[in-house]
Every structure is written in structure tokens, then in C-alpha cells.
Amino acid sequence: MKKLRNAILACAGTIAIVALALRAQTQTPPQTQTSAQSPAPAPQAPAAVAPNPLVTLGGNATIEATPAAVRQSGEDPAAVARGAAAYATAGCGSCHGATAKGTNIAPDLVRSPLVEDDTKGELIGPVLSQPHPKNGGTKPNLTDQQISDIAAWLRVQVYGAAMRDTYQYLNIVVGDPQKGEAFFNGAGKCNTCHSVTGDLAGIGSKYAPPQLQGLWISGGANARFGRGRGRGILTANGGMLADTAPPEITPSTITITVTLADGQKFTGVPVTYDDFHVAFRDMSGAYHSFDRRGEWPKVEVHNPLQPHWDLLKHLTDDEMHNVTAYLVTLK
Amino acid sequence: MKTRHIFPLILVAIVPLAILAPIAIHAQGVTESMLLNPPPDSWPTHHGDYSARRFSKLKVINDTNVQNLSLDWESRVTGGIPSNAVPGRGGAGNVRVAGSPLLVNGMLYFTANDNAWAMDARTGRIIWHWYRESTGNEPVTSNKGMGMYGNWLYLITRDNYLVSIDATSGAQRWIAPVADPKQYYFSSMAPIVIKNHVIIGTGGDSLDLSGFLQARDPETGEIQWTHYNTPRAGEPGIETWPNEYAAAHGGGGAWVQGAYDPELNLYYYGTANPNPVYAPQSRKGADLYTSSIIAINPDTGKMAWYYQASPHDTHDWDAACDTVLIDGTINGKPRKLLAQASRNGFFFVLDRTNGKKIVAVPFVDTENWTKGLDARGQPIPDPAKEPSLGGSLAWPNAGSATNWPPPSFSPQTGLFYVGEGEGYAVFYLTDTDEHPEGYAGIESALGEGPGAIKALDYRTGRVVWRHNWPAGGGAVGLLSTAGNLLFCGNGTNLIAFNARNGKILWHAGLLAGPNAPMTFMLDGRQHILVFAGDTAYNFVLNTPVRAPTAKKK
């Protein structure tokens, strides 16, 4: 028995040693809060693909990184501007396109993994310090400063393409203002609530066309009709709950009428409205809160923007563009 | 004879080590049979089981007693502090646990971006915490969780590293790069473990990359196969692109976890939208296999079939939401089916053996972008609704109909439950070049109305019942059970519905919006567990549990 016990223990011990040895090789100390040294990534780039065959020589591309992209990218704006000039005068665009998006004879640099990985010219620099292209080309006639500037400009092109919060609208005013006016006063029934000499006077001066289009179709609130995580329909003036002043009622404020089982009726601005509670500030500013049980209290929602929501279900793009073109003229 | 002398030496050497070696209570971890047939006291893969139905057979908690559901414990987690955190500024450690945890051997395993934890399911105590700060420019992710193989956990980081972690200690075993974050790949899915494959996918559509699904070796992290979701020269589907270059930069990421049919040995998943996202001019054609549902052999990576939910998508309507496997009946015949409530507002039911369409109908109240179905039963997009200079008004918008929060199918009621929303947006083209890049457009002027929970008859898509939310709504994670219950969130409430008729039976107010609830047995009690923001809430019935009696020897 002793032999067997020893044998079993020895086996267990061997296994323990081997297991520990393996663990020692592969494990880092537990519960460390380290930012791991990232190993060099193996980019999953697609297999080598020919340059874009679509774009004709010289490229017709005009869209490039916007000033917002230059600002947000963290690159030195002066270097980026010099880089744009150097790119143009060195003739890079005749092969890579004026905005570096590639042509049928040279790759798109904006989608280039090498350019995407470049942080301060360490990858782009060596390419431009050698014969370019590698097979049969000549070394570009660029100073180190120019190479560094071109690299900065290229990085901004990548940033500007990838970061859509830097995009700029083009000219969105494509509609017919006269048709827009006819719709406003006709099929759209806009004039039943609005007046171009009253509440909408000068609206074309107040907002840039993309904002104007978004505001008028939604009715001015960009129409978050109670979406958001169900925390209820927010008060128009965003007042604190402890504020006992009468709520500010604007043309777009959603109000509710609440009727209790005992007949009491309130009107107010909702703060919470879900399947279980309704809470609001009434028109005098007092705060009320009720459980919802069965059909009580009865809650009627008055959303002045409802006609906009309903309109959008059948508004055509032509009608939308036309009305926007019309509103733009209201200076 | 010699061995007898060696044994005592070995004993002397190993005894102290044996004492120090971590006692591997959970050494067994997750086995293949557990994944194929999850025991009641487990949740061994992201959706609980491979079908992605998010339906539990447990009925200890049911429609007759759910009003007694009460809080057992809550537990809050804090994330690691990133290097750019502003000292003293709140929220640096706050995290959101977006996906359901795993539950294996009484331990919960879950993630938030850059973080992973193990938590004792009986008490809520945190056992270990792993943290690694991601790199790169893409902030937009919510990590969905982990996969498990044996005693090893797997997650994929925002900056595309597959990490393997020891489930007992939280120690990182290895970390393997999957894709370059500087190319604007990002990752968020919970890896799905199938046999000896860890299935992962990446997302990212900021710049025009090539989306793919991949299988990795669970022991070493090495690549077993890679399936690019857009074709290359000579491959079927390349004719739906102008050329290989466009396809190779055509997007189609696989950033949501899929479902698996072990009998057919097929893994099903949805792919993301094509690139450039809003600009159609450089990718005329259907753009396969973007915005598609794909069936793939997990051993070989070979595609078996596809169905394209949004051919030539120009509205960011990923089909990257859940593909739910339903064993149902169509026209009296038993059928193996797959259902998806897709981002484009359509409810699809397919034959999952061959991808043939059975149902393709809107599940939202308002959609305005289709002109009927094509010969394969796929929606035909109206070219007039493509993004334009002056703006194109489209219902739904890119995210209003539904999104990655998972739906649920109950075989008991035959109903497919989905959290949906009504919404529109104006889609503008901002890059009119022949060769646009990135998003190449702007989605703005979003309007979203209150949403609903809809219970659909899977055979037709007909709405059998709906619950309109007074406020809020949209995509929410769901769980249905054999106790005739449907659990979901609205606002900061966790709610239980009667699954058959949509009556609200119970709710609890939490501190944040809940993610998809999950359920399990533990020590004879059924638990309903949900994360809301950084806090886990564990609910049980408020009834006494019998104490065990000593077993006779």
C-alpha cells in the first residue's frame, strides 16, 4: 500500500510540477492593472489588390479632409498646409490623385495601411527617401521638411475620411422655393400653425440650411419624442425638480393632462412617464407624482409636434427640399 | 530498486509545491457537452445556448409567482483607470456591462470595454478583475462578453486583440493580435466557442476595410481559418461589385455573435453594412455579402449559404444583429428555421438548411425604402432613397428599428419577441467623388418616437401582441422562459411580462437601463440576473428554501 501511495503521490507531484512549469511560462501575475505592451499587430489587410481601376488618370476627386479634421487631428496646421502644397508641386497627385485617393496607376493613400500606421513620418519618410515607385522610379526631390509635411497632410486625409464628425455638408439647397411656398400654403398645411411674417420671420438667416431642414421637419426639437431610455419626456426648460416656478411653455413643449379616479384633473409638463408612474410639474410649478394602477390616472399627452411626425410619414424628398429652399429665402 | 529511492526525493520536493498549487475546483470549466446541452445551473455561452433564442426551460419562477420576485443582492463593479483619465473627474472608472455574463460552476464571468471580472453568483463578491487599456481612435463599442473553453475565458478587445484568461485566477494566458486598430477595425463581440474553435469577428466602418470572421485555436490563439465577408477575384459574389478593389474595401464586418446548429454543423451570423457607408457610386451592385445572413462551416470556414437582408445597403443597416434558430412548423411540416429582426426594419425567417426565404415583412410600423422583394425574397432598395445632396428622408434610420440588444423566441408561445422603435433620419451625401471614402455622408435630423415590444408569430411576422411604451423603447435585450415570462427593460425598469398575452406582471426600478436578462438555477433556486450600467442585480423568489439534510454514508 505504501508503495502505491508513494507512486500516486509521485505522479501527482510530477503533474503538479509540470503544470506549474507551464503556468510559469504562460501566466502574468494576477490582478495586475497594467496597460499591456501591445505586441506589433498583424494587420488583417486583404491580399494584395491592384490599384483602383475606376478613377481616371489624375483623378477627379475633390473631397478632402475639412478644416475641422485638421483642427481635431492634433497635427500642426502649418505643417499640413505646407504638406498640401508640397504634395501638389511635387506632382504626387498625377499618380495618387489630387486628394490622395488613388488612380488607376497608383494606390489610394488614404486607405493605405502604411499611412494609417504612420504616427510621425517614421513609415512614410523612408518611402519618400528612396526611388519612388520602387521599381523604376526616381528618388523624389523633396527636403526632409517637405517629406515630414507631406506625411502630416496624408495623416490628416486619413483622419478626415475616417472621422465623420469632421465632415462638411455640401450645398443641400436643391429644391424649388416657389413649389415650397405652394406646399407651405397648400398641401403641407404649414400655414395653419405657422406664419412666414410671424414665428418664422427671418428663419433663413438664423440657421444654416442643413440645420434649418432638420429643425423644420422635426418641428424644432429634433424630435426626440420621448426616446432615450424611458426616463420620461424631459421638460422643455430642463428645470430642476425642486424649482417651484411655473414651467416655461414653448410652442414645442409637450404637456400632459392627468385625471385621477376621484375626478381631480391636472395639466403639466411631464418629468416621468412610464408604465408604473407619472410625475409632472403642473402649470403653477408644483410637483406631483402618482403610481399608475390599471387605467388610473388617465394620462393624455399633448404633443404640439405631432403634426410634424405625422407629416414625415408621407412627405416626399422633393417636397422636403422645396420647403427648405423656400424657408432659406426668409431672411 | 532505484525508483524506491527517487520517490522520497520527489515527495520532499513536491509536497510544498502541491500545497501552493491553486486548488483547481473549477478545472473542468466548460465542456463540449455542456455547450450542446447547457445544464440548468449554467449559462456557458453568450446567449445561454447555441440557438440564440434566449429562452430558458426554467419555470420555478413563473406567471403565478413572479410578483414575489425580490432582490437577492446587487453588486457594483468599477473599471480600470485609463491613462488619460482626469484625476478627480467622476466616471473614469465607471463602466457599462452590455452583454449577459457567463455562469459556470457558480461563477459569473462578464466584461465591459477593456475590463473583465469574475463574480460569485451566490453573493455578488468580485473574485478577480482583469484590465487592459485599448488603443486607437474608435470609441464606439460596448463589449458583449466572453466565451469559455475548459477553464479558459476568451474576449476580444476594442483594439482587436483576442485575450485568453484563466477563469480561476483572472491571469492573462496570452494575447493575440487580430486586426490593426489604426485601420479603424474595432471589436466588441463575445467569442463563441464551438468544438475546438474560438469564433471571433471584427467590426469597423469608419474607413473602408475588409470585414471577416475568424476561427482561432483555443490553446494557442493561432488562426485556424479566416473568412472574408466580401469576395475576391474569381469567387462567387464578386460579380455584385464593380471590381475586386471595391470588394476588398467593402466592409461587411462580423461584429455580433452568432448562433450554431450542431446537427447541421453550421454557424450563422449577420454581417455589417458595406463601405463606403452612405455613398453608393463606387460600389454599384448588390455588394455581397454585406448586410447579409451567412451560414458557415465552423471547421473549414467555408460559406454554405447566404441571404442578403439589405442588398446594396446605403443606410448603415447592418444585418449584424442576432440570428435566432427556431425549430418550427411551416404549413404543417417541421422546419429548421432562422429568424432575424433586422436593422432595416424587416423581420426575416429563413430555412436554415439552405437560406431560402420564408418570411420577409416589416416589423416596424413605418418604412419607406423598399420596392418589394426580389427573386430571392430579399428587399429591393428604392434608389430614390439613397443618400443625396439635398437629403433623403428614410424610415427607419440607421439605428431606430432595432440593434444588437438581443431578441428572444419562446417555443412555448411560438412568439418572436423584439424591442423596436419608430424613427427616421435625413441621409446626406457629402462625398460625391467617383471614389468616395469612409462614411462619405451624414445621417442627421434623427427623429425617434416611443417604441414597443412586439410579439411576432414566427410563421408570418404577424404582430400577435404589442406593448407600446409610454416613453423610451427601441432595442432592448430580452429573455423568455417556460414560466410564461418575458423579461426586458424600459427606461431604468426591469419588467416581467406574461409572455403569452403581454400583460405586465412585475417590475423593479434599477439605477440604469438593464441589459439582456439571464437566468439560472443555483442551490435549488432560480435566479434572474441582469446588469444595469455597472451594477448587477440578482433576483430570486421571496420564498423559503429547504435546508439540505446530511447524507448517510
What are the main properties of this structure?
heterodimer, A: about 325 residues, alpha+beta, five-stranded antiparallel beta sheet, 12 helices, about 10% strand, elongated, B: about 550 residues, mainly beta, five-stranded mixed beta sheet, disordered N terminus
Task: Report on the architecture of this protein.
With 331 residues, chain A is of the alpha+beta class. Chain A has helices at 2-26, 67-73, 77-89, 93-96, 113-117, 124-128, 144-162, 177-185, 203-206, 209-218, 306-312, 317-328, and strands at 255-259, 265-273, 277-282, 287-291, 298-302. In chain A, strands 4-3-2-1-5 form a five-stranded antiparallel β-sheet, with no helix packed on it. In chain A, helix 10 crosses helix 12. The N and C termini of chain A lie far apart (103 Å). Chain B has helices spanning 2-20, 32-36, 244-248; strands spanning 55-56, 69-76, 102-104, 107-112, 115-120, 126-131, 147-149, 152-156, 161-166, 172-177, 192-194, 197-201, 212-216, 223-228, 259-261, 266-270, 292-296, 303-308, 324-330, 333-341, 346-351, 357-362, 370-373, 379-381, 392-394, 408-410, 415-429, 441-457, 463-468, 479-481, 485-490, 493-498, 504-509, 518-522, 525-532, 535-541. Chain B is globular, with a radius of gyration of 24 Å. In chain B, strand 3 and strand 4 form a beta hairpin. Chain B has 553 residues and is mainly beta. A five-stranded mixed β-sheet of chain B has the order 1-30-31-32-33, with no helix packed on it. In chain B, strands 25, 26, 27, 28 and 29 form a five-stranded antiparallel β-sheet that branches. A four-stranded antiparallel β-sheet of chain B has the order 2-36-35-34, with no helix packed on it. Classes of the chains: A alpha+beta (331), B mainly beta (553).
